[in-house]
From TrEMBL:
Family label: Belongs to the FAD-binding oxidoreductase/transferase type 4 family.
Annotated transmembrane regions: none
InterPro entries the UniProt entry points to: FAD-bd_oxidored_4_C (IPR004113), FAD-bd_PCMH (IPR016166), FAD-bd_PCMH-like_sf (IPR036318), FAD-bd_PCMH_sub1 (IPR016167), FAD-bd_PCMH_sub2 (IPR016169), FAD-linked_Oxase-like_C (IPR016164), FAD-oxidored/transferase_4 (IPR051264), Oxid_FAD_bind_N (IPR006094)
Lineage of origin: Bacteria, Pseudomonadati, Pseudomonadota, Alphaproteobacteria, Acetobacterales
Keyword Lyase annotated: no
Any Pfam family the entry gives: FAD_binding_4
PANTHER family with a match to the protein in the record: BLL6224 PROTEIN, D-2-HYDROXYGLUTARATE DEHYDROGENASE, MITOCHONDRIAL
Signal peptide: none
Residue ranges occupied by any FAD-binding PCMH-type domain in the UniProt entry: 41-222
Name of this protein: FAD-binding oxidoreductase
Keywords per UniProt: FAD, Flavoprotein
Length: 475
């Protein structure tokens, strides 16, 4: 191996390639890239690389591959499962896409946007809006998460029930492969039936097969009418019944349908300034319904009144408030969006990002909550999330008075308890957060046999040296 490909020689070559702003090695400079958002993992790395374009990414990967140095791709570092955190051995480099933040093109006729991997999701939304289009991917971390990251994890979010996950919003990709070659698959075609759909290999692969450097994304017509409702409901079954009522009357109007437990709303009102209960009385079960239409004359308020009236008469809805103004709609959404932060401030929590068939969501919430309380008495279930697509964040807050670290030490017991219910309901142990480092040990039990074998063969074929985001996804 040439001297230039020793670790020190590699860093020297990379510094020459990327310039002073492109290679960070000082402890204080690389520290933010070494810990995950939830504080579950604290890794080490030789350096943080900050390439400014695809050619520089390719050169970085080529050099690291030659030296056998692992690479951890990183976007906004908002992974909930440690998917962008290096391991503790310190042998890897973190490759940040933050400087690759250009919108390369927007076409309002084709309804497409080509954006680099480091573009923040909120910036992509704003750029689409400036072109009188809509980029619909939306979730709590959209002000930090990046396009490359959400594609690498196949993020879902609040509007999946209407627009689908990140995968459904992607038409083409540009990817740097583990040997440094660049695959340019930035196609804007709705139909392209030419062999294997390689782009789908990299969506959800969490950087283990290559580094997404740019993507061509689908855009939509922006809504011209919008309304948000916050309702208290009798129970979980009533929440699902209300969803079915809206779907039966006008399925196309539903942009989001979210469930929240009363305890989750309590935490938001307790810990988040400006958040209050929007209803006259507290309730154990609540829903948030977001309605939208591209028709300016769409009477969403009448639609809401019709459905809520029938649901109240059936005893499903107890009370409801309609946003009415944009400020009020944002305030209602804030209750839902601040759930993760409110739970963090309340204490230690174990997060379960799971999915089941939509029809099984009420049973999931009831059974998993009861099972976790039986496992650790005093545990406070805080389920919330996307009832409309079957994805519930089945989170558990530490019992009052229990040591937080002691509770977190039972994390895998709790996750196993939730997953036992999920498996019986034909669900998945990861709905939208991915596998990362947190859930690799579950892959054998859930995806073992032919499925996991195929994944491992694909990994070995594309990344035979195993340098791409090691320790993630595969056991």
């Amino acid at each position: 191996m040439p001297d230039t490909l020793t670790p020190d020689g590699l860093l020297a070559e990379l510094a020459t390639l990327l310039g002073p702003a492109g290679v960070l090695t000082a402890a204080e400079d690389i520290a933010p890239a070494l810990a995950d958002w939830r504080g579950l993992y604290q890794g080490k790395a030789m350096a943080v690389l900050r390439p400014a374009n695809t050619q520089e990414v390719s050169a970085c990967v080529t050099l690291c591959a030659a030296a056998g140095i692992p690479i951890v791709p990183q976007g906004g570092n908002t992974s909930m499962v440690g998917g962008a955190t290096p391991t503790e051995d310190g042998n890897a480099v973190v490759l940040s896409l933050a400087r690759m933040n250009r919108i390369r093109a927007i076409d309002p006729v084709d309804m497409t946007m080509t954006a680099e991997a480091g573009v923040i999701v909120k910036a992509a939304q704003d750029a689409a809006a400036d072109a009188n289009c809509l980029f619909p991917l939306s979730f709590g971390g959209e002000g930090t998460a990046t396009i490359g990251g959400v594609l690498s994890t196949n993020a879902g979010g609040n509007t999946t029930v209407r627009y689908g996950n990140a995968r459904e919003l992607m038409l083409g990709l540009e990817v740097v492969l583990p040997d440094g070659k660049v695959w340019n698959g930035l196609r804007r075609l709705r139909k392209d039936n030419t062999g294997y759909a390689l782009r789908h290999l990299f969506v959800g692969a969490e950087g283990t097969l290559g580094i997404v450097t740019a993507a061509t994304l689908r855009l939509f017509a922006p809504p011209r009418a919008n309304e948000v409702l916050f309702c208290s409901v009798r129970d979980e079954d009533a929440a699902l019944a209300v969803f079915r009522r809206f779907r039966a009357v006008d399925e196309t109007a539903i942009r989001a349908f979210e469930y929240m437990s009363g305890l989750g709303v309590d935490f938001a009102a307790k810990h988040i300034p400006g958040v209050t209960w929007p209803l006259a009385e507290r309730a154990d079960h609540t829903i948030l319904v977001d309605l939208a239409s591209t028709r300016a004359d769409a009477d969403l308020q009448s639609l809401a009144e019709q459905v809520l009236g029938d649901a109240m008469e059936a005893g499903e809805v107890i009370d409801a408030v309609v946003g009415g103004s944009e400020a009020r709609r944002q305030a209602l959404w804030r209750i839902r969006e601040e759930h993760p932060e409110a739970q963090r401030k309340e204490g230690a929590s174990v997060k379960n990002d799971v999915s089941v068939p939509v029809s099984k969501v009420p049973e999931l919430i009831r059974r998993a909550s009861a099972a976790c309380v039986a496992l650790i008495p005093g545990t406070r279930p805080v389920p919330f999330g996307h009832m409309g697509d079957g994805n519930i964040h089945m989170n558990l807050e530490q019992p009052e008075g229990m040591d937080g670290d002691a509770f977190l030490a039972r994390s895998h017991d709790i996750m196993d308890t939730v997953n036992e219910v999920v498996r019986e309901l034909d669900g998945s142990f990861s709905a939208e957060h991915g596998i990362g480092r947190l859930k690799t040990d579950m892959m054998e039990a859930w995806r073992g046999g032919a499925e996991l074998d195929a994944m491992q063969r694909i990994k070995a074929a594309l990344d035979p040296r195993g340098i791409m985001n090691p320790g993630k996804v595969l056991p």
